[in-house]
Amino acid sequence: MADDPMQSAPPAPKTAVGTRRPFYLGYDSLLTAGFQLGSPFVLVWILSWYLGVGREPGGLFGEHNFPPTLLLLIPTIACLVGIYRLSDQARSTVLDSPCPCCGALHRRTFGALSKPSDDAVACGECAAYLRIRGLEVSEESPAGMHGYELWPQRYLPRARRSPDGEHMLFEMPPMCATCGAAEAPQLREIEEWGARTAAATSGGILGVVADEVASEAFGNARYRAAQRRSVATAPTAEALHDKALSALTVPVCAQHTEEADPWDAPCQYRCGRILWRSYRYYKAFLALNQIWEGRPPANTPPPAPDPRSS
Ligand SMILES: [Zn+2]
Ligand SMILES: [Zn+2]
User: Where are the chain's structural domains?
Assistant: First the structure.
């Protein structure tokens, strides 16, 4: 590149350099770590049991052996799911690094490259999503289309309410919420995060099945507990946030209406979180609504409880 004093090139993205850690330090829960790391050992034990019993008179399907033969199929499937997840975790990159946007030091797990939906990771302090090249951490590109979550702690202080108090209102950046086109005359409704997104973004049938089984077992335990509570008792704050978000609409171009592009919702909600498909739109939404993007100020109060949740 010639030395050109003109500022024609966009500013280089800020980067930070991290220190790589072993993959097993990247687990955020002991339960998940135990499930994944224990799966190969349990599977070996089950297979050796099958081999041993298979050599006995009557074999696996003998009168006394048939029930345990059948029952052990359940942990066998669970172990295969655990090994599938473990292989993902083992191929991920666990980095200790500052965030290039806010400087917050964190350990972050950058997903396996076989799952592009995994590889932009939330800073954990500021609103930025991060990506790595080798040990270099930089902010997600504005062109990123991998799903970016906005938590109630960030958006609640800036949410306005509809006159009847039922719904939250926000300013929406005047461009297509999927591709960023300036011409975005139509409105598309927010969707509840659902199975069709999981099927569309996961790799292959095995991935879909394994993701579903694993999230049944562990990943969504909190979500399911919240759902059960909301059925059993009064609705939770998360369920009330979801209800208040459910009337949001975003502008889209003719190519990204629900009819033209039904599989890739630009904006979804779940457990009180707003999930954006486009990083460009996510950042524009934060800026337009003056939603706090940086580290939480000291002594940040917890999000105000919904007046109707009590
Ligand atoms: Zn940050
Ligand atoms: Zn568009």
Answer: 19-139, 148-288
Ligand nearest to the CA of 281: 2
Q: How far is the CA of 171 from the centre of ligand 2 (A)?
A: 18
Ligand 1 centre from 106 Cα, in Å?
A: 9
| pLDDT tens figures, 229-247 | 545 566 788 888 888 999 9
Q: Which ligand is nearest to the CA of 254?
A: 2
Q: What is the DSSP letter of 71?
A: H
Decide if pLDDT at 20 tops 60: yes
Q: Given a cut of 60, is residue 207 above it in pLDDT?
A: no
Q: Which ligand is nearest to the CA of 106?
A: 1
- Ligand 1 centroid vs 146 CA: distance in angstroms? 18
Contact 79, 43 (CB under 8 A): yes
Identify the pLDDT of residue 301. 47
- Is the overall model pTM greater than 0.70, yes or no? yes
205 by Cβ neighbours in 10 Å (0-12 / 13-18 / 19+) ranks as exposed
Which ligand is nearest to the Cα of residue 176, counting in written order?
A: 2
State the average pLDDT for the chain: 81
Judged on CB neighbours under 10 Å (0-12, 13-18, 19+), 190 is: buried
Ligand 1 centroid to Cα of residue 104, in Å, is: 6
**Complete edge-to-edge strand list for the sheet that includes strand 273-276:** 148-150, 273-276, 267-270, 191-192
